[in-house]
Amino acid sequence: MKRDKYMGMDVHQATTVVVVLDAEGKLVWETIVATEASAIIRLIQSLSGPLHVTFEETTQAAWLYEVVRGYVGEVIVCDPRRNKLLDEGSKADKPDARKLAQLLRAGLLRSVYHGQEATRKLKEIVRAYETLSADTVRTMVRIKAIYRGRGIGTSGRGVYRLQQREEWLAKLSEPGARQRVAWLYEELDQLGSLRKRAKQAMLVESRSHRAFALLRTIPQLGPVRCALIVATVDTPHRFRTRQQLWSYSGLAVGSHT
Prior knowledge:
Elements: E1 5-11, E2 15-21, E3 27-34, H1 37-45, E4 51-56, H2 61-68, E5 74-78, H3 93-106, H4 120-148, H5 165-170, H6 175-206, H7 210-215, H8 223-233, H9 242-249
Parallel strand pairs: 1-4, 4-5
Antiparallel strand pairs: 1-2, 2-3
């Protein structure tokens, strides 16, 4: 009878430290492989018996999850903030990978949800839209900061309007500051155009999901908010109760003191 094995992976950009334990917690294998799909798959296929794998939620987590999930019995992408055991003892790659394997074997890891294939495109478009929106706000703040730093009031949104920009630029007596703001205006225009395109693509893609039409029947929920909810929630069936779903979606009643 083949016994279960538990693999902890400490993932880095170039290499990944791998530690494998058996059902009794004894060390089976400890190695370092390249952080490449082919190398990781070869390693997994070389192990016999049911295999459980865990690694922390990082930049490569979504990619690695898709790489390994078809070759193992269980994949847990865990929340690094809750792995208190990793804060104890030696802090290094091999001990971290071994502690992950130990936590996996003991059932002490809390998994981070990774979405379904059907919503992957929408998720990427939503991330692009949110990034462009954040960059737009950041650029607007930088423009106002330059004026305020020179004692020039910037109440309202007039400082951003295309028709008033020459007037605002004329208020800056320093050539360097004036050139800097002119470039920020160009950046703001580019971001605005890209943000509109991302928003349109997001709404078009979101309409292909049945949940979007259901959410639109809720009063006060516009198309952008519905698209964000579909991409973020993915499926309501991953929540144990309706209250958890409402809270996660930002629809629950909140209390503040």
